[in-house]
TrEMBL record:
Residues 400-418 have a biased composition (Basic and acidic residues). It comes from [Candida] arabinofermentans NRRL YB-2248. Pfam families: Methyltr_RsmB-F. Residues 48-393 form the SAM-dependent MTase RsmB/NOP-type domain. It comes from the Eukaryota. GO terms for biological process: tRNA methylation. This is SAM-dependent MTase RsmB/NOP-type domain-containing protein.
Amino acid sequence: MGRQFRKGKGKLGQRVDSHWKEIVRENAQWELFYKTQGIIPENEFEIFKKTCQENLPLTFRITGNKNHAKEISKLFINNHIPKLSNIDNAKPFAFPWYPNNLGFQIDLPKSEIKKNPNYSSTQQFLVIETEVGNISRQEAVSMIPPIVLDVKSNHKVLDMCAAPGSKTSQLVESLHSGNEQPTGFVMANDSDYRRSHMLVHQVKRFNSPNFIVVNHDAQLFPKIKLNNEWLKFDRILCDVPCTGDATMRKNVTVWKDWKIGNSLGLHPLQLNILLRGLQLLKKGGRLVYSTCSMNPLENEAVIATALKKFNGQVKIIDCKNLLPGLITHPGLTNWEVFGKDMKIKDKLDDSHGMLKSLFVPDDVENLGLENCMRVYPHDQNTGGFFITVLEKIDDVKENGKRVNEEEEEATKKQKVEVDATQPAPATEQPQTTEQPQQPPKELKHVKQNKTKLP
């Protein structure tokens, strides 16, 4: 909703001729782009568009340790769901795909729940439990990546673009889901130091000794030495900056701001972050790449390029079995690349100056992109999302060198002295090198904005 004020004279503190102007939920370029891609079947496009123009329903998940969370869940199910079920259109339910029935949706916008006296007791419950940290108001689809990452208590976990921290909170909860104190940790990173402080605030209610916040450009996340060994992560979440065009039900400014140039500009940044994440992943480890965008230039094009660069040493794994009851669609194996002039570009024509990584690769049928997961708003009254689960088969790159060997060579070039003859102290802190591995030559470092896109 955009706010506009007209100039005029009035008393101090008094607004004169002010009015609210609704943002028009239409964008001709967005509609042309997605109709041309054929992502949504022609007979479904109007309902898809209509759903995108509506406000999101209220969703939340219950946080904390298992026993406490079950008590809060039982309280909501017994005291509030029966009341809401008797009111037209509310339709409260637990997500069938969220573990232990701890994720819920009420099929009404939060603004209506606030205003309608019939929902006053539920609204009060949500406010109180949110304030004390028992409930996290989180969009349904954004709960998916931490679930398919499948974090265990002994895992070393990196969240590369963590702020504002709702997914990070899920990762910390998963780490502590067992009965014993976890031996792993969650390292949450964000490139903006102010948003990094937000992470501390978001997760501090867990009082976890296994959580650390760092502040680095994810494209150049430094190598870390722990106990005299280079640290490799068991699990990595790459929820990268994106155009957020699948969040237009919540962020209505997307309707007026959407243009194809945003995706073209973010593509190399997203690819750099993913490549760095795969370098930091250990053999047998799992990385989840996700965006709140439906644009294949930010999704399948990025995944396809990363798979080719790792030359068969990384594969997509199918994790739909972890999400029972969630309607998902397979990843795309064909898409069109638009230029800023909204004209389709030819892969074989070099005159347009577009990155080759934007286009469908020749061997796309061998990459397994159909195992990527797409979630569309009109299927289950949600936002849109893209999720891909990647597994590292081996620490080998295209040139045959193992990653550890390359890192050792890079360390020598950077003149970082490591005295291997002296044993590491028992309380040794992680060490980072000043200059990590650089991105591939054809993809130069992309300067990030200090505010994450929606």
